[in-house]
Amino acid sequence: MSDFTSNFWSVYVTIITIVGIVGCGLLLWLTSRKKVEATADNTTGHVWDEDLTEMNNPMPRWWMWLFVITLLFGAGYLIAYPGLGTFKGQLGWTQVGEYQREMDKAAEQLQPLYARFDGMSAEQLTQDPAAMAIGDRLFMNNCAQCHGSDARGSKGFPNLSDGDWLYGGDPEQIRQTIHDGRIGVMPPMAEAVGSGEDVRNVAQYVLSLSGSPHDSVRAALGKPLFASCAACHGADGKGNQALGAPNLTDDVWLHGWGEAAIVAMINNGKTNQMPAQAIAEGGKLTDAQINVLTAYVWGLSHQGASGQ
């Protein structure tokens, strides 16, 4: 990337900023020295709206000193803080550092609140109304944007309340998903499967695995071709949670149902990402918050265990 960038804009911003401050100072100095020849009545001869006359009086000193203070403050600010291109300022202040300090302060203030949940299992946490109330807020603030406020998801975003899990629904696996994130990849498989008709036949076979309406003749032709898919989805089509490969027999369709949707998936593939939520991985949640959120998400598909 460095081959396509330079320090031009940094130099440009620095020059414009310095010239602006120095120029304002010179303007103040020049205007304070300029003498205007006045008439006998101490006016400049400028009249507006017939009766508004400009007097030949110097600028008020309070205004002049306020201008000087403003210029000095601006110069001092640019020395202490970032503002002159890539110059970082003598104080070393950054937006990222300020954000991190605020996050650390918030985590410190919240630590006593989460301390009572230390050592509790996911099932125990789901029985704690306070923990579930916190989990609900964490979910709404960090997860509902994709999975929905009811956690039922939408096309491309998994339903978290139905017990169908790509990577497993145990608390440990849910926690890993929240903490580290996931990247699911379905590679384009058209070349491995065969012609366009072969792809349609495989799509019909996939539909047959879940008992969905399908063309039985095409499904029979597609069954031997499914061997190209079995490496991830298994010979029986029940998926592989170690790879995040979906179960094709349970009639749950993350990216759409029907021949057209399956053909598009085989031809084009798909990459889905669940971003990491842990602070250590670039997210916003502490380990204590992730523990509570894990229990909340686990409880969504274990209503009996959580008593919800």
Automatic annotation (TrEMBL):
Pathway(s) where this gene product acts: Energy metabolism; oxidative phosphorylation
Alphabetized UniProt keyword annotations: Cell inner membrane, Cell membrane, Electron transport, Heme, Hydrogen ion transport, Ion transport, Iron, Membrane, Metal-binding, Oxidoreductase, Repeat, Respiratory chain, Transmembrane, Transmembrane helix, Transport
Segments passing through the bilayer = 12-30, 62-81
Annotated Cytochrome c domain ranges read: 130-210, 217-301
Cofactor dependency: heme c
The cross-references to Pfam families, in alphabetical order and at most eight, read:
Cytochrome_CBB3, FixP_N
State the free-text cofactor note: Binds 2 heme C groups per subunit.
Isomerase listed as a keyword:
no
Please tell me whether the keyword Zinc is annotated for this protein: no
- Where in the cell does this protein reside? Cell inner membrane
Cited SUPFAM superfamilies: Cytochrome c
Please explain the role this protein plays, according to its UniProt record: C-type cytochrome. Part of the cbb3-type cytochrome c oxidase complex.
Which family does the UniProt entry place this protein in? Belongs to the CcoP / FixP family.
Q: Supply the PANTHER family for this chain.
A: CBB3-TYPE CYTOCHROME C OXIDASE SUBUNIT FIXP (PTHR33751)
Q: Quaternary state and partners of this protein?
A: Component of the cbb3-type cytochrome c oxidase.
Protein name per Swiss-Prot or TrEMBL: Cbb3-type cytochrome c oxidase subunit
Which species is the source of this protein?
Answer: Comamonas faecalis
The taxonomy runs:
Bacteria, Pseudomonadati, Pseudomonadota, Betaproteobacteria, Burkholderiales
Underlying gene = ccoP
